[in-house]
């Protein structure tokens, strides 16, 4: 965890970030957040809260309507190539080649990311680190479980060796053991000084490892707590309270039920 007395520049920063999609849906409303080196910021929120939109703006997959996303001080949407050198990304559904082996996927995507200095032994070290069993290294991904594919994705992210990491619901669909292992790994990366912004549905893991937790509702960051502020707080109750507040505001109980499903 970051020493509060040392003020470093944030590695990830959303400044007045607003996104209105072409069909008029306001997915983000003036979002402000910062993630410093050695910090994990977890974005909680139901489906449609704006989590993926936030991450996609940092990756320049989409452009904000107004405001800015900075990666290591570089505007992610006006200088995306430079900005993206500073960030690695793991999505919920890691998109790798099913007909390539784990090793071939790692080699391909790591080279695509601009790193050509690695040897097979470096790839092996990374795959061991993320907990992929050795027998799987040279097997095709099409026979892998979601957890195994996720491990390949995080190995690629680790080998990119970027100072910031974006994770979009990385533990969704993983079995409890794989989710636990993944969370431990994310904690290790934070301890190495990475700045990590992750979206998640997993309230308990978020509380366990995050330095900051933000609750997003309809594009608005309705609550933000530091890990210290969460001590003794029932985050689940807090979350439901904010969701309930939102429900009263919009008057659509079905929206909440859908969000929590
Ligand atoms: N490409 C798009 N075009 C129009 N609306 C979109 C698009 N992508 C997402 N949205 C809408 O923006 C809102 C936020 O979505 P999203 O960022 O995917 O939320 P989350 O990741 O928190 O589930 C939702 O209302 C969603 O329907
Ligand atoms: Mg999403």
What report would you give on this structure?
The protein has 261 residues and is of the alpha/beta class. It folds into two domains: 1-86 and 164-261, Rossmann fold (3-Layer(aba) Sandwich); 95-161. The protein has helices at residues 51-58, 80-84, 102-112, 120-129, 146-160, 176-191, 203-209, 227-230, 235-250, 253-260, and strands at residues 12-20, 26-35, 39-44, 66-71, 74-75, 87-90, 164-168, 195-200, 212-217, 220-226. A six-stranded mixed beta sheet has the order 6-7-8-3-9-10, with helices on both faces. A four-stranded antiparallel beta sheet has the order 2-1-4-5. It is globular, with a radius of gyration of 18 Å. The two termini are 33 Å apart. Mean pLDDT is 88; it is low at 250-261.
Give the CATH level 1 class of the largest domain.
Alpha Beta
CATH architectural designation of the largest domain = 3-Layer(aba) Sandwich
The neighbouring-strand order within the major sheet is 6-7-8-3-9-10
Which percent band covers the strand fraction?
15-25%
Annotation, overall tally of beta strands: 10
State the distance separating the first and last CA atoms: 33 Å
Can you summarize this structure?
This protein is an alpha/beta fold and 261 residues long. It is built from ten helices and ten strands. The strands form two sheets. It has a six-stranded mixed β-sheet with strand order 6-7-8-3-9-10, with helices on both faces. Strands 2-1-4-5 form a four-stranded antiparallel β-sheet.
Furnish the topology, listing elements before pairings.
Elements: E1 12-20, E2 26-35, E3 39-44, H1 51-58, E4 66-71, E5 74-75, H2 80-84, E6 87-90, H3 102-112, H4 120-129, H5 146-160, E7 164-168, H6 176-191, E8 195-200, H7 203-209, E9 212-217, E10 220-226, H8 227-230, H9 235-250, H10 253-260
Parallel strand pairs: 3-8, 3-9, 6-7, 7-8
Antiparallel strand pairs: 1-2, 1-4, 4-5, 9-10
Bound molecules: adenosine-5'-diphosphate and magnesium ion.
